[in-house]
Write a structure and sequence with these properties.
The complex is a heteropentamer, with two copies of chain A (277 residues), one copy of chain B (260 residues), one copy of chain C (277 residues) and one copy of chain D (297 residues). Chain A is built from ten helices and ten strands. With 277 residues, chain A is α/β, with parallel strands linked by helices. In chain A, a hairpin with a 4-residue loop joins strand 9 and strand 10. Chain B is mostly helical and 260 residues long. Chain B has one domain: MetI-like (MetI-like fold). Chain B starts with a helix and ends with a helix. Chain C has 277 residues and is an all-alpha fold. In chain C, 78% of the residues lie in helices and 0% in strands. In chain C, helix 4 runs parallel beside helix 7. The longest helix of chain C is centred in the C-terminal third of the chain and has 39 residues. Classes of the chains: A alpha/beta (277), B mainly alpha (260), C mainly alpha (277), D alpha/beta (297). The structure holds adenosine-5'-triphosphate (ATP) (2 copies) and magnesium ion (MG) (2 copies). One adenosine-5'-triphosphate sits at the interface of chains E and A.
Chain lengths: 277, 260, 277, 297, 277
């Protein structure tokens, strides 16, 4: 059982203490992720998805409960982890070129030069940005900046990949390509992925399961397993009836969440929507 | 709560206590004329400063410092905003400003005497002439560094010049203006002393120099300590103002650092 | 009255020269300087002040020409520049290293705060007897003053700069587990760099002021000592000629700093930029 | 003795003297130029400083072997127990009313005609609580005015002619070359305050630290010998002294030609030291009378 | 004809001149928008959509051609215009509360206090943020910040509204609500809207027409009129066959754009997909 769990989020609670305003962003979150699993997280805006990701990344301390990664309690960023931040623009160093931004973590990881070059080139090609490798981030459009951040994470070849709305600023076609990139990367490297998104189709298309969060103070409202075949394809997968069912189900859950629904039990019934219905 | 106050007090006073102790021990048996034992310095402190000199010397000094500092603040922020906002103006005046900035105040004094006489105004101007630079430079840099997206936002909503000045430029540059204001304060105190080297007949700086000339060394040291105390008191006052005016900046940083 | 003319005269220059296209920066700067020269020439000539005490600019220049043909002047100039450069280098190096060290360790910062606030305003001129006591009137006495005064300028700027590091950038670095030194090199240092540049420019001027003042008062060899000699001989025009040299030196240093700034801060919003029409 | 000095130079003792670049120290410059110090096996470096405040610590800490200072400053240092000792005379007032190298000047058109008129007026001196105000008070008293009513302000000598002309001060205690400059600008000299204090006032002197006197009395002796020779030489060759002044100052040659030189003498006038010590006590510069014995060689 | 045109973009070209890199972001854009029209702009990431919007807003000068708004050439931000920036987080004043941010432009417009209060309250309610009116922007989640920026634009009651991917960071449900908010606002106030998005469904659902841009250097690849009924509804409209046709059409156009297709003529044929097919 323990070897079966990569990430264990146990009763995590997070309260932001301000002078004038104290916010209980997360009430109680408990779930675990298997090694090599791809879990998507959806939830209303302000639900605490970013907060959760930062707690998992060891960037933010939890108020209660604990985050355990590979059997070790997370207190600082663990090794072998990459994060794509929601504020993509600010997570790039403006004083370095695109190439420099992608290469830096690799240097830090002591990847030999030749290998490093290859990784940088390949990841920039994957996000179609090899032609601007020598530009500075602020010379790029929003979507391009976001893709640089993704390329940086991809080149790093992490064991755990946390992504916070990574495709929010890219166009539909690129988005589809990047979705497939993440899936192929995930299958090739066996990396464990936690993926926050607002796009329900995307969550269903990408994930092996979808965690639906309630409004703040946040609980896990539902944990929907995605029982689509592993081989997925933008056209065929999205047009299967099961895909439609799942996305309608998640959509309803989110509407419930927005309506203030909080108890996981109430939704258990609908979660039973399985392949056999 | 109490623990955190105690912790902060400890942090604030810890190093000074160590340094004072070191000074105390190092000079305990000092026979050197210029390095009197610390107890001797502290012993003269009271009689030197609290028997009439507070009103006769310290007060006039502080008033001149205050006047000079406030004028420098107004001028520095005003000019700095103008210069920071206009590349053309910056190109025109920068060499001239740099020219004046490089001139040491003691050589500027004769010119100031020509224009402002030998009274308090001259000394105030000496203080202004030095204080203004950190404020000016920091304001210029602060104004230039304001986020482009914010600038664009203000332009789009067609904010008037005046409110753009208040709500965008000054607020946006305020962290850096504060940095300049703090540096200016210590320079102001230095210049308060320098200004009292000329045509003065009262003031802390004047008195300290007088002690120095008449070889009243413990008294001179007590004056240096007094200057430090004045400095730290004023810095604390300034910090208080800054604490209120820049609450958002602190919050922004603390929240993003996840101190929640 | 005179102050008003001082500021409006140079400001008018670009309006007359502005034809089509922007006027290059050096031209504008030269216009400003010419304005100042004209002012210095006119004020004594028009009798606003007694020309015996503030001679017209042309007379200062004549005296300057006289100075420039004497070897003593050049020796003094070199002595001043050397003292200034050594003092500034020490102050900048110490200020940057200590600033980054103190700034990036919160505990250290809290512990040193009060001491810094106390030591900073102690007038370096009050240290003159101390300096003389230690080193007589040779170079080092003035050096102490220069280092002491300019050190604080750099230190405080660096402290502010370190505080300004973008949290998202910081978190990015942490999540990729950059080593401390790499964080300093790739995140803290570039962020602090604009502040360091401002600190450098402030310190350069303060160092020059203290170098001259030290020479003036202690009598270490240099321009300050020459100014003192001119002053105590009643040679007003020579004195102003030397003051002009000091000022010009300040302008040159600033030009150099600006040039360096444009090179190393090409990525910074204040330097880069599509200037909106 | 160029041959001699070449021979000596290997063994010449390096000596640093802290001086102020003013007219008063012309003899040492002249003496160095004439080789008087080299003859005594001394390799003299003259370090110019702003004033006594910087030179005295230098001598005490033995950065300088010898220093130049006005007598009152030395008395003040002595009062605080600094171990100093006078080794030679600096300069003297000429002792001639109206033709001294220093005096009190009022601006053109002033209605003050003698020192008594200074009561209630503002008078500039270079350093407060020092030889300037002490001696000016003597003039005022002698002329029948009330010295306590004179309002002294501190102003560097170079600023005084300007301040006088602009009417910022009512009078100023000036030394050469500023005395001449101010008079050329229409100023009137109303008192020779040094002469009013004493006929042959020794204003300044050269001094060393007691440590050096004890550890190397022979070196001090040689310095004094060379110094005295220089002082006498300067007194007897005023034209050469004027020329020497032009070397280490920027004084306009015309002014240098015109100005009054102080008197130089190799003799130390213990009487004036005593007199100045009394005045220092009278004016409250010191709390009790300085033991002048300790200061004198 | 002239009264029929609100916005006229005539042969606009935009080149970014960098030291090392010159980018022709926009080659030649020509189109016009009627008063009260809602036009959506889609295009590949880096196509120059943001650049175009900034040129229209008068924030960026054009290299060639001109932008004419209500008969006047745009050189500076014109009155009665509101912009929601792609970098939503950076467009909020961090030193003001949410309320302050929304209220400031109204104060500038000299809206009387009572009216102002009402507008602020209503617009914050519309984006469901009335409960955080007194928080600072940096205390909010990404999606919440974006909604503040939208509320600010809405409260301003502009005549021209430019929005750059305004819903990128909000959840699906909120997005649907905001889409309806924009449409109702548009119909109620008769405001002219230029709406940049990456979501093709959104573009079709919202717009009266969809402009498809090519890759940089950019041209208008197609101008697709959206002939859906004016009364739209998230469920029914999106499930009509015509909606499906249009979104497939736009999707294909974007794929063409990404494939490097540049000539508008080639696509003219497919644009003919009309209600009568
Ligand atoms: N530094 C902070 N101080 C105070 N409150 C905060 C802070 N950061 C986040 N919050 C609050 O915590 C809650 C959750 O924020 P979080 O950013 O995690 O949401 P999210 O799910 O990522 O939303 P979105 O999808 O809009 O990005 C919000 O109510 C927000 O206001
Ligand atoms: N300041 C700048 N300097 C240099 N090049 C720039 C600058 N701003 C934008 N560009 C370039 O112009 C092109 C268009 O950028 P723009 O931001 O308009 O794209 P976009 O269509 O908004 O993309 P996205 O959908 O990703 O936001 C890009 O290639 C970008 O690199
Ligand atoms: Mg978020
Ligand atoms: Mg964009």
């Amino acid at each position: 059982m323990t070897t079966e769990t990569m990430l264990d989020v146990r009763g995590v609670r997070k309260v932001f203490e301000g002078k004038s305003r104290t916010v209980e962003a997360i009430r109680e979150l408990t779930f675990s992720v298997r090694p090599g699993e791809l879990a998507c997280i959806v939830g209303p805006s302000g639900a605490g998805k970013t907060t959760l990701l930062k707690c998992v990344a060891g960037l933010l301390g939890v108020t209660d409960g604990e985050v355990v990664l590979e059997g070790e309690r997370v207190t600082a960023p663990p090794p072998g982890m990459a994060v794509v931040f929601q504020e993509y623009g600010r997570s790039l160093f403006p004083w370095m070129t695109v190439r420099g931004n992608v290469e830096l973590p690799l240097k830090e990881k002591k990847v030999p030069r030749g290998e490093r070059r290859r990784l940088v080139r390949e990841s920039l090609e994957a996000v179609e940005l090899d032609h601007v490798a020598d530009s500075y981030p602020w010379q790029l459009s929003g979507g391009m900046q976001q893709r640089v951040a993704i390329a940086r994470a991809v080149a790093y070849e992490p064991r755990v990949l946390l992504m916070d709305e990574p495709f929010a600023a890219v166009d539909a076609q690129t988005r589809a390509d990047l979705e497939d990139l993440v899936r192929s990367l995930w299958r090739r490297l066996g990396v464990t992925v936690l993926f926050v998104t607002h796009d329900i189709d995307e969550a269903v298309y990408l994930g092996e399961r979808v965690l639906v969060l309630s409004m703040a103070p946040t609980l896990v409202l539902a944990d929907v397993p995605v029982d689509l075949p592993d081989e997925r394809d933008q056209i065929t997968t999205r047009s299967t009836p099961r895909f439609g069912e799942l996305r309608t189900h998640v959509w309803e859950l989110i509407q419930q969440a927005k309506a203030g629904e909080r108890s996981p039990e109430d939704t258990q019934v609908t979660t039973a929507v399985g392949p056999d219905t | 709560m109490i623990v955190s106050i105690a912790r902060r007090a400890l942090l604030a006073l810890g190093l000074p206590a160590v340094l004072v102790t070191l000074w105390w021990v190092a000079t305990a048996n000092s026979t050197s004329f210029f390095w009197p034992p610390l107890p001797e310095i502290l012993g003269t402190f009271g009689e030197t400063w609290f028997s009439g000199r507070l009103a006769a010397d310290v007060l006039p000094s502080l008033l001149r410092l205050l006047a000079g500092y406030l004028i420098a603040l107004a001028l520095g922020v005003g000019l700095g905003t103008a210069i920071g906002s206009s590349a053309t103006l910056r190109a025109v005046v920068e060499p001239v400003l740099e020219f004046f900035r490089a001139i040491p105040p003691p050589v500027l004094v004769p010119i100031l005497i020509l224009f402002a006489g030998i009274g308090d105004w001259m000394k105030v101007l000496v203080i202004v002439s030095g204080c203004i630079w950190p404020i000016l430079l920091n304001t210029v840099e602060g104004v230039r560094g304001i986020d482009e997206v914010l600038r664009d936002t203000a332009r789009c909503y067609r904010m008037r010049r005046s409110s753009r000045l208040v709500h965008l430029v000054l607020r946006g540059a305020s962290p850096q203006i504060a940095a300049g204001a703090r540096q200016a304060l210590s320079i102001g105190i230095i210049l308060m002393v320098i200004s009292e080297m000329f045509a003065a007949s009262n003031g802390v700086g004047f008195t300290v120099i007088q002690f120095q000339r008449s070889f009243a060394i413990p008294q001179m040291w007590s004056g240096i300590i007094l200057l430090g105390l004045i400095g730290i008191t004023l810095a604390l006052l300034l910090r208080l103002v800054e604490y209120r005016a820049l609450a958002w900046y602190r919050g922004l940083h603390e929240s993003q650092r996840g101190k929640g | 009255m005179t102050a008003a003319t001082a500021t409006t005269a140079p400001a008018r220059a670009p309006r007359t020269t502005r034809g089509r296209g922007p006027v290059p920066t050096p031209v504008l700067g030269a216009a400003g300087v010419l304005g100042l020269m004209a002012l210095l020439e006119l004020v004594p000539r028009l009798g606003v002040v007694d020309r015996r005490f503030l001679p017209p600019f042309s007379e200062m220049i004549a005296a300057l020409a006289g100075q420039m043909s004497s070897a003593e002047f050049w020796v003094a100039l070199v002595a001043t520049i050397r003292g200034w450069a050594i003092g500034l280098a020490i102050a900048v190096a110490a200020g940057v290293v200590l600033g980054i060290l103190i700034g990036s360790i919160p505990l250290l910062r809290a512990a040193t705060n009060s001491t810094i606030e106390f030591l900073r305003p102690i007038p370096s001129v009050a240290l003159i007897p101390l300096a003389v006591l230690l080193y007589g009137s040779d170079l080092r006495a003035t050096l102490i003053l220069v280092v002491y005064a300019s050190f604080w300028q750099v230190l405080v700027q660096v402290l502010y700069g370190v505080r300004d590091v973008d949290p998202v950038a910081r978190e990015t670095a942490r999540s990729y587990r950059f080593r401390r030194w790499t964080q300093v090199r790739t995140v803290i240092w570039p962020t602090a760099l604009p502040y360091v540049m401002t600190g450098f420019r402030l310190a350069a001027a303060v160092a020059l002021i203290l170098e001259i003042t030290g020479e003036l008062i202690i009598g270490s060899p240099g321009l300050g000592a020459q100014i003192k000699v001119a002053q105590s001989s009643g040679a007003v025009d020579t004195m102003y000629a030397l003051v002009i040299v000091t000022g010009v030196f300040g302008v040159l240093v600033n030009l150099l700093a600006r040039f360096a700034e444009r090179r190393v801060l090409a990525w910074h919003p204040s330097v880069r930029g599509e200037v909106p029409k | 003795g160029s041959g001699g000095s070449a021979d000596d130079s290997g063994g010449a003792d390096p000596v640093t003297v802290g001086v102020i670049p003013i007219v008063d120290v012309a003899p040492v410059y002249l003496g160095v130029e004439q080789g008087f110090f080299a003859d005594q096996g001394l390799d003299v470096t003259l370090e110019s400083s702003q004033g006594g405040a910087a030179i005295v610590p230098g001598v005490v800490s033995e950065e300088f072997e010898f220093g130049f200072s006005n007598v009152t400053s030395l008395l003040l240092a002595g009062a605080k127990g600094l171990p100093l000792e006078i080794v030679g005379a600096g300069n003297y007032s000429t002792g001639e009313q109206g033709d001294d190298f220093s005096g009190v000047v009022v601006p053109e058109g002033s209605d003050i005609t003698d020192a008594s008129g200074l009561s209630g007026k503002t008078v500039a001196v270079n350093t407060l609580q020092n030889i300037g105000d002490t001696t000016v008070r003597q003039s005022v008293e002698k002329a029948g005015g009330n010295p306590d009513e004179v309002n002294f302000v501190e102003l560097p000598f170079p600023e005084m002619p300007g301040a006088l002309a602009e009417g910022r001060v009512d009078g100023a205690w000036l030394v050469e070359p500023f005395r001449t400059i101010a008079m050329n600008q229409g100023g009137t000299e109303i008192a020779s305050n040094l002469v009013d204090t004493q006929d042959d006032l020794m204003i300044s002197s050269y001094f060393t630290s007691k440590q050096l006197r004890q550890s190397d009395p022979e070196l001090v002796e040689r310095f004094t010998t060379a110094l005295n020779r220089s002082l006498d030489y300067a007194e007897n060759n005023p034209d050469q002294a004027r020329e020497a002044i032009l070397d280490y100052t920027e004084i306009d040659p015309a002014v240098a030609e015109e100005m009054t030189l102080p008197k130089w003498s190799s003799e130390i006038n213990t009487g004036t030291v005593e007199r100045l010590a009394e005045l220092a006590l009278e004016d409250g510069l010191v709390d009790e009378k300085v033991d002048t014995e300790a200061l004198l060689p």
